[in-house]
Each structure stands twice: as C-alpha cells, then as structure tokens.
Design brief:
3 domains; UDP-N-acetylmuramoyl-L-alanine:D-glutamate ligase; 10-stranded mixed beta sheet; Rossmann fold; alpha/beta; Protein-Tyrosine Phosphatase, Chain A; 35% helix
Length: 463
C-alpha cells in the first residue's frame, strides 16, 4: 500500500494512535499533514516539525495527497464530510490509520499489548525496558511516555512495540509475534453486545498472529481464562502471569504506597521488584512487561532496574502537583474496572486526605450499558465527593436515553456525596470554591475533562 505513497493526510490526527502513526510515518520519510476539529495534547511533536495540522475538515487539504488515513470514528459520523467525498471523487485511497501502522511495522519483530485497560502503561514499560537494555525499539503508544516525551519512537532495532485496541476489530490489522493480554472485560457496547463477543474478537486476533507466536496472559482475569478455553488447536506458546492464580510469573508479598514492591517468582527463582508507580493494577502491568521482555531475552537485572526508574505515562494517575495546598491528579479511567483501581490507588497513596473525584462519562452507549457497574464502583469506593460532568459524546449523538445527572443521582441514592455539575466551566468554579488545603482532586475521563485539571491548576496557583 505504501510503496507508491509520498504524502499521507490523517483525518483525526489528534487521536493518540493516529498522531503516533503520523509521527512514525514522518520519521520514515513520508510527507505528513492532518486535520482535527478537537484540540489535542498529542500533536505537539508534529507541530514542532512544521507538520500542517488544520482545525477544520476541508477538501483543499487533499492537494498533493496520495493516501487519506482516517479513524473508525469518522466512519460513524452521520453527516457528510466533504474531505472524504472529495477523496473518493479524486480516486485517493482511503484507509484506517491502523492499516498504515500495520505496514510501517512490516519486517519488525512485533510485540503487541492488548486488554480492556492497562495497555498504555504495559506498552510503555516494555518499550522502556527494551530501550534501556540497548534493544533500540520502535514503539507506538496510546499515551505520552514521560521518558520519551512522545507517544511513539522510531528506533533502529528489530522490535516494534505497539498498543492493540480491540474496538471495532481495529487490532485485526496487526499480526504480532508476541502478544500481551492484560485483561478482558466487557466494554465498547456500541460495537460489542456481550463479553463473549469481546472474547471472540480476541480469539480472531490471536489466531491471526504471525508464527512462531507467543501469548503472554494475565491468568487472574476471568475474561482471559475464557479466552484460553477458546484457543483449542492454537499452536503458539502461552506464558502466564498473575497474583492470585498459579502462573509462570507470579507476584506475592505486595506492598503498595507511592510506588509498589513485590516478590517475583519465576523459573524457581525469586527477585525483589521495586516499581516506581503505585497501585496493584500496575503490579499486573509490570508482570506482563517482565514476562514479555524475558521472553525476548532481556536480562532480568536490566528489567528490574528499568522498573525501579520508570517514570510513568501521562493521564494515568498523573500527579500534577500541589497547588494552593490541593493535590491534582489527572487520569484516563473511563471504564468501571479502571475507575475501581484508580480510586483504590488514590486512597492507598493518600490514606487520610479528603478525596474529590471529577468524572466525565465517555459515550452515551457506555454510560447506559454499564450504568449499574458505574454506580457500584463509585458508591463502594472510599472517595468523599463525586462530581459528574456532562457525557462526552465523542463519535455518538445524544439519544436521550441516558444523562449524566442520572448517574450522579443514583450514586447519591447510595448515600454517597455526589452531584451533577454539567459543563466543565461549572465544575471548575464549584471546585475552586469548595476545595481546601490538604484535599486531593482526581479528574478522570477519556474526553476533554483534562481542561478541568489545567484551569483549576491555574486558579489555585493564584488563590
């Protein structure tokens, strides 16, 4: 596909995966441009290199373009986009950005990271371990890795580490030799109708892996266990990791604070692991990274050193600092499973502090389908006050079947302090008036709720 391509235009270039793919294409010598109607934290690298990024969609962007790369979200929009229709009229090939990424990783040893949550951190851990061990990998991540300051890197080594997202079957374009499956839970109800459908998609992905294949899985995940029962006749190697179940790489004696410490057992040997990021969920991320990189022959001593100094990724329990005595944390959690571990980690790190949580629901379909799970996780958590913003629609339209105030009301009905505050501006003003020194504010969601963190930070500085 890319043999005769010079200039690639990315529609929706502000997305984490699309921007990383555009950056890799640029590093590989392609001419790149893009457009996105939403502001993005992921495009600074491209802008610094004078890549043209337009804030609107327009047919004029297609001048000199050989290939148009779009996101699946563009396909779901129910209004005409002239850029797309003009590309069809001119005969410019239109592909998903995942297809471009798949071609860019040709001839590499491909290491994929998948799962309902934890993909970004596990990808970053593997990329960091391989880099610090001198393997010089190429990688694509769904988040900005602090060590590199970007969500991608074009290395000169043979390994290509990438995040593999199940939504819409996006990961089916990829054919890794090594695949980490961190967990499998029900998500993306606008595409999947049940957990079984999610598992079936993972099965298709795994059966399409390039041989010889190695599957590195979290054996504590019920969804992963269901997947393993479906892999009869699959000829690859399976490596397991876990805490609760018997596994090849097992963690025990876990101590969680501002980081994590645990005893690792594998091949009848024991090692003390110090992890710089907090939370039991990061023990699982670390175990997946350890198992994958040991399979790739990285020395265990190098792995242990990298885990101890790992700087984390942005928007994953991202402690921005203390402002006016208030600690601000930015987090990407938008699925009940991820929210649960984020809130547990917050209380572990800040055991005696008042915790405020700002949650921006992501998609009407997810909010409705997982409503009971959202209510349960918030009502059973140790947070002190929940603020729910308007639902971030992303690729969807409001059906009128669910509203953010429904979620706030249901949590409040469980005797938990919760309120609906609507717009992000209302949230900022309410918090600014209510928070006090010693409080912790966790801002979570996959949409534009990070603006609350940014603006509240500025207001608190001047308080």
């Amino acid at each position: 596909m890319l043999e005769k391509v010079n200039h690639i235009h990315f529609m929706g270039i502000g997305g984490s995966g699309s921007s990383a793919t555009a950056g890799l294409a640029l590093a590989k010598g392609f001419s790149v441009s893009g457009c996105d109607i939403h502001r993005s934290i992921y495009t600074s690298y491209l802008r610094d290199r004078q890549v043209l990024i337009y804030p609107i969609h327009h047919p004029s962007h297609l001048e000199g373009v050989d290939l148009l790369a779009i996101s699946r979200a563009v396909k779901t929009l129910n209004y005409p986009i002239l850029e797309l229709s003009e590309a069809r009229k001119r005969g410019i090939p239109i592909v998903q950005w995942q297809e471009v990424l798949a071609e860019l990783m040709t001839n590499y040893l491909r290491v994929g990271v998948s799962g309902t949550h934890g993909k970004g951190t596990a990808t970053a851990l593997i990329a960091t371990i391989l880099t610090e061990a001198g393997f010089d990998p190429t990688f694509e991540s769904g988040a900005i890795i602090r060590k590199f300051g970007t969500n991608f890197r074009a290395g000169k080594g043979k390994h290509f580490v990438f995040e593999a997202d199940e939504y819409g079957g996006n990961f089916l374009f990829f054919h890794p030799q090594v695949l980490v499956v961190n967990n499998i839970e029900y998500d993306h109800p606008d595409y999947f109708h049940s957990l079984e459908e999610v598992v079936w998609e993972f099965e298709k992905f795994i059966r399409g892996m390039k041989k010889p294949s190695a599957l590195v899985v979290n054996s504590d995940s019920p969804g992963v266990q269901l997947l393993l029962t479906r892999l009869s006749g699959w000829e690859g190697k399976v490596v397991t990791y876990g805490v609760e179940t018997f596994s090849d790489f097992k963690a025990a004696e876990i101590v969680v604070g501002k980081g994590c410490q645990f005893k690792l057992t594998y091949s009848s040997e024991e090692f003390l692991i110090n992890l710089s990021v907090p939370g039991k969920h990061n023990v699982y991320n670390a175990l997946g990274a350890i198992a994958a990189t040991r399979f790739l022959d990285v020395p265990i001593e190098s792995i242990i050193s990298s885990l101890a100094s790992f700087g984390g990724i942005e928007k994953r329990f991202d402690i921005k600092g203390e402002f006016g005595g208030v600690t601000l944390i930015d987090d990407y959690a938008h699925h009940p499973g991820a929210i649960k571990v984020t809130l547990e980690t917050t209380r572990e790190v800040f055991p005696n502090r008042r915790i405020w949580v700002v949650f921006q629901p992501h998609l009407f379909s997810r909010t409705k389908a997982l409503f009971d799970e959202f209510v349960e996780v918030f009502s059973q958590s140790s947070l002190d006050f929940l603020i729910v913003t308007d639902i971030f629609a992303a690729r969807e339209e409001d059906t009128g079947l669910i509203h953010a105030k429904d979620l706030a009301g249901a949590v409040s009905g469980k005797q938990k302090e919760a309120r609906y505050s609507g717009s992000l501006e209302d949230v900022i003003e309410f918090l600014f008036k209510q928070v006090a020194g010693g409080d912790v504010v966790v801002v979570m969601g996959a949409g534009d709720v990070y603006k609350v963190t940014e603006k509240l930070m500025e207001k608190l500085k001047s308080k």
